[in-house]
Design a protein that fits this description.
binds glutamine, 482 residues, alpha/beta, single chain
């Protein structure tokens, strides 16, 4: 097994025992990136030198006897997360030459813990999308089939974890952007409770649902990342204190666990073969001792409609800062005299413009009540419905995406089709719930994902259930094509 293929847990053990060094681990990841990134286009920036320096520093800490779950572990970060001194583009032409002046809180926490930043990953421009095709820098490819999309918007992070370019990657999930690509790439995608991880230094999309989280190889690894990045932050007033214990407590028996299954998440819109696999995964939870409880969440069907009013509304406001004056420097040469600012018209891609216009419309006088206010009222209903459901069950199991990864170019001309990718993901985002997507098996060599959602702050529980499943389920290993 190559070092870059290790899980965090495996690598941590080898690092602690002095069997390997962080520099060796980091070099293995950098070599893998150099080998396959041209084909995948998963990374937009690689900071090899800085990574090796950070790895050497981690080795010194390890040699001095310090231990930590992420000490010396190499990772990649989605390129809408600010990284001091490094270009941070959000995959937009608008930010093509933007160098972040500070680290996002999640990045500084990871650096303090001794994790090693390898570089930045591709995404849909400003995280608007579900395929990573809307990147100004070209699409990322799915490592299981290079003619297909990796999902999105954290497609670069998901492809990178799947193809072992790093041990874990950071993503952001606003309406599914961690769980969707994780599902298409056969990795674990974990969206923490809204507010449990600081948004400070994330390039804002929809402030009321944005949350950073981890794409990892196992649920245990995702929990290891959560423990470092979580926490209240005075720079983000929406943060809360999560009650995650410092020790992993993966229970392999799910006795006394009540798992809700809502019929609204099955049937129409869901690929039949995928449905069979997801139902089998739920059956596996039952074998582990869980009780399966049928529940009903009728407002699920409004999730996408509500999300696509609220999201563009917040986007139209958040992206107003890119006003053609403060950001968007275009340099034709090193000489500053040759640089100029690009306009919003030039700087934004079609999907970003569509959302700014939709949001401006939904918020405008005369339409505000009919669209924005109504969407907020239905959102409140969705939240109430989940709260009622969580009186009956501990977690909810559901599909993550309607089907497996689609072909490049297949859906990017039809916004509605693309938005329907988010059907099973948006309700929990609107309610700020923790949710994790993980593999349920495969169809024709392509991964199928499903998800486990929990009430707010039940992060540890959803990850424990995911871990119990992942430890007992037997899946065929899929072939990576790079
Ligand atoms: N696909 C969703 C959208 O396009 C999710 C985006 C996200 O979570 N960043 O809005």
């Amino acid at each position: 097994m190559k070092l870059n293929e290790l899980t965090i847990k495996q690598a941590q053990k080898k690092l602690a025992e002095g069997e390997i060094t962080s520099v060796e681990l980091t070099k293995a990841c950098l070599a893998r990136i150099a080998e396959v990134n041209d084909k995948l286009n998963a990374c937009l920036l690689i900071c090899g030198e800085e990574a090796l320096a950070a790895a050497a520093a981690a080795d010194a800490r390890l040699a001095a006897g310090e231990r930590g779950e992420l000490l010396g572990i190499p990772f990649l970060a989605k390129d809408n997360i600010l990284t001091k001194g490094l270009r941070t583009t959000a995959a937009s032409r608008m930010l093509e030459n933007y160098v972040a002046p500070y680290d996002a809180t999640v990045i500084s926490k990871l650096k303090d813990a001794g994790a090693v930043l390898l570089g930045k990953t591709n995404l849909d421009e400003f995280a608007h999308g579900a395929s990573t095709e809307f990147s100004y820098f070209g699409p990322t490819k799915n490592p299981y089939d290079l003619t297909r999309v990796p999902g999105g918007s954290s497609g670069g992070s998901a492809a990178a974890v799947a193809a072992d370019l790093c041990l874990f990657a950071l993503g952001t999930d606003t309406g599914g952007s961690i769980r969707h690509p994780a599902s298409f790439c056969g990795v674990v995608g974990y969206k923490p409770t809204y507010g449990s991880c600081s948004r400070f230094g994330l390039i804002a999309m929809t402030s009321s649902t944005d949350v950073p989280g981890a794409l990892a190889k196992t649920p245990e690894d995702a929990l290891a990342v959560l423990k470092v990045i979580q926490g209240q932050d005075e720079k983000d007033s929406t943060t809360l204190k999560l009650k995650v214990k410092s020790k992993l407590k993966i229970k392999n028996s799910l006795k006394d666990l009540r798992v809700g299954v809502a019929k609204e998440y099955f049937g129409e819109g869901l690929n039949k073969q995928a449905e069979t696999l997801i139902l089998a995964a739920i059956e596996e939870l039952k074998k582990l001792g869980a009780e399966i409880v049928p529940i009903t969440l009728p407002n699920t069907r409004y999730g996408v409609s509500v999300y696509y009013i609220i999201t563009p509304s917040e986007i139209s406001s958040n992206l107003a800062r890119f006003d053609g004056l403060r950001f968007g420097l275009k340099a034709e040469s090193e000489d500053l005299a040759d640089s100029y600012l690009i306009s919003r018209g030039q700087g934004f891609g079609a999907e970003v413009k569509r959302r700014i216009m939709l949001g401006t419309y939904a918020l405008s006088s005369g339409y505000y009540d009919a669209y924005y206010l109504k969407a907020q009222a239905v959102r409140a209903e969705i939240i109430r419905e989940f709260e009622a459901a969580f009186k009956l069950v501990d977690v909810i199991a559901a599909p993550a995406t309607p089907s497996t990864a689609f072909h490049l170019g297949e859906q990017n001309q039809d916004p509605l089709k693309m938005y329907l990718e988010d059907t099973f993901l948006t309700p929990s985002s609107l309610a700020g719930l923790p949710a994790v997507s993980l593999p349920a098996g495969s169809i024709a060599g392509l991964p199928v994902g499903w998800q486990i959602m929990g009430p707010q702050q039940a992060d540890e529980l959803v990850l424990n259930v995911a871990a119990a499943y992942a430890n007992s389920a037997q899946h065929q290993k899929l072939e990576i094509k790079v």
